[in-house]
Amino acid sequence: MKTLKDFYQILDRHTLVITLLALGSTYLCRYYGFLVDIPTDLLSIAVIFPLVFSIGGAYKQREDVTGAFASLRVNAIALYYAHRDWPRDTSHHESGRRLSEDLLRAVVKYFRSLPDSPESKTILQDIYKLFSAFSQSHERLRAAGVPANEISRANQYLTRMMESFERMNNVLIYRPPVSLRAHSRMFLNLFPIIFGPYFANLAYPDYPWVGFGIATLYAVVLVSLDNVEDHLENPFDSIGADDLHLEVVEEYVQFLD
Question: Model pTM?
């Protein structure tokens, strides 16, 4: 059942539109006797190869985001432990907990907001204010007697955390090649018309269902691949089955005690 549910997620209105166009084109070509044996290599070059290339790039970016998100969480918790355990003055405990918790939740809120929206820009400023607050807190740890080598370690944790955030942000801003994406989508929308004569020619004239069946299969497969690429391209929107589970942050916040 889970497999069917996941497959259903990659079927949408676009799938229906392309399928209907393919069936309509096939019907008209059979009706008017316009039958052509078009080389299927054209479909591979124009649609399938760009789609597969884009899916590979999007999947690689998703894996990078997964690693960066894990690194960000781990370093945030490490900084909390540093505030809790390194200074003799226990007053830094609450400050470290609050900063780590606020940062993790701000990151989740940022990636759930619409890119380039006023809200996302405000949250981005808040995130960097929290990074700055961490840096200032490290100086207070230094003043509280924490050795210089430990402060250096804390700053390394902060640097790694900032780097992890920017790696995630780069995936949000810079998607797989836009020109390649436009190319594959254009030919995907044109293929029902271009290949109508080919589908109409299959098993003509005795078995019309063969052409219609193959046209439907091609449409569903190609649009499904396109939707898979769409879902992988933005791992933060909580639409696809392979999206990043940002809500896991709430489980990590419980470690801050």
Answer: 0.81
